[in-house]
Amino acid sequence: MKELLHYIVSKQxxxxxxxxxxxxxxxxxAKGLTPVERMTDRFERLTAAETPVILPNEKxxxxxxxxxxxxxxxxxxxxxxxxxxxxxxxxxxxxxxPDYENIIKIGLLEARKTADEYSRRSIDAIIGLADRYKEExxxxxxxxxxATLNRVPRYGATNLREAxxxxxxxxxxxxxxxxxxxxxxxxxKYMYPYFKKDMDAGVYTLDTALELIxxxxxxxxxxxxxxIGVQQGDNxxxxxxxxxxxxxxxxxxxxxxxxxxxxxxxxLIDPKINLRVNKNTPIEVYELGxxxxxxxxxxxxxxxxxxxIAGLEKLGYEHNDAVNYTCAACWEFIVPKVGADVAxxxxxxxxxVIDEVIHEDFEAAETFEDFLAAVKRRIQIKCDExxxxxxxxxxxxxxxxxxxxxxxxxxxxxxYNNFGVHGTGIATGADSLAAIKKYVYDQKKFTRxxxxxxxxxDFANDSDMLAVLRYEAPKMGQNDDEADxxxxxxxxxxxxxxxxxxxxxxxxxxxxxxxxxxxxxxxxEIGASPDGRRKxxxxxxNFSCSIYAKIPGPISVISSFSKPDFSRAINxxxxxxxxxxxxxxxxxxxxxxxxxxxxxFDMGGHQLQLNAVNAAAMRDAQLHPENHLxxxxxxxxxxxxxxxxxxxxxxxxxxRQEYTV
Length: 661
Prior knowledge:
By secondary structure, the chain is α/β, with parallel strands linked by helices. It has three domains: about 15-180, no CATH class; about 185-330 and about 580-645, no CATH class; about 340-575, no CATH class. Helices cover about 45% and strands about 10% of the residues. A hairpin with a 5-residue loop joins strand 5 (about 325) and strand 6. The longest helix has 23 residues, at about 115-140. The protein is globular, with a radius of gyration of 25 Å.
């Protein structure tokens, strides 16, 4: 395993890569091919052009040897498409959780019986590539791989290794087709029957099963640098572990433990582990999760079943679908098999709303209640603009994705077609409101005109006001009831503004607490803010306090950020905590952090992620990246290698709050 790990980390497998110089858009346009014909033809060409490569000693094979995927459309065609439709991100399908359970059980030939022409061609193409992999395995004398590929993906898996190989082929095919942010779903739920069968039969010991899981985990890291994202590492390979099943039974099992252990042993950013918990989750599970946090991977990310399931049901999800929720690429809650939600279609900036209010409505707001009413009105206006802007949503057809979803045509929609909207900069927004209430309306320390002038001048001419607003004003994260109450109000206004609205696919709109990359992007849209944040400074990442706020410690943070009614903002978005890595040198640190995590969920929190950071190591990595190739940090809903990030994201991680317990 160490040899294979080194082979992949040192990128030796990149020597097998090549690029293709195909101008498919022009060719397809000249031929007048439809979108589904283009996707099918491209997939057939790509699978035919791939070179089967089996790495030394690997058990789970399939790697990309073609590093680029030519677009199916010309720029002019995209312009025409966008003139008629709303195109989300790249226009290709993303952030879905396929029905891995069913396809691994029945095999592609069984699925082919009811597939349309284009899906059948896609199935034939990937089976053809699997056959060529089997031929390569025969040449190398790898009888074990030959035996696996004799079965899958044509037929359903009969054991754990076949099931893992089947998954790898499906996952590989989705990326090769052009889909992205392809998630893993509830891995320990649908893969457990194969694991249990082999363990009961004595095929594996826990140690040998762990070796196989580690080999499988390595497969996520072979091609991930070719996957699309805002930054390297933002690839959506999100795996969910634990949680309740349809009957209320706990899913977390021995396979779940091996997954956590495999991540801890490999120290790689993929797959990104999510862990579902609830009021009955024993402290031992939190401790296992904290061991992974200690390793510095930035995961697991935790989700609270008691809040999430009820929140999804409140939005109209049937119980058996809600209870099987998983996470999209980052944190957004999606439903496997039947869900076609677009969980990250837009974002609302609370600080921008408040910036507009202080510049346009401040003078007319005689009381703070008047000011809040103006904020609520503008949130409604912004949400109306967002919902009006998204019309005639269209995706490029995906013949292979269509095969492995349990709906008629995932391109048209699914059982659930809801749209999620992020709410960004909540601490900056709430802190700004708290400062305005205290110093303008209650104490009358500053006039409206003075505050607006100072904000517009970036506090350059009023250092005294800056110090008061920045360091003395109430802040979310201090367990200050006034600031926290205003944060809850912002979230409630956001939910109110989206409630009852229908989208163009017949679904609803979901408010959320995430921020994604907007903690930089939205911060750049405005100047300084009334909380003492200066121009150019970012918001806190995700659902978290401002990066410069004076915070007593993590207990006050979880107290502040567990107060909202998350059932009204259930799109997802975790509280993010940064811990100093040296804290874990203490013997009782694992137990303390585990209890802290459990406390947040006992208080009613819905999602949480933790980062164990070492500022000195990160600063040295900026100077000497070659010495820190596996230094991992959490960015928003995903982890990345620090040295592969743009400097603005590196600097944000360095600037975040660091806690100890």
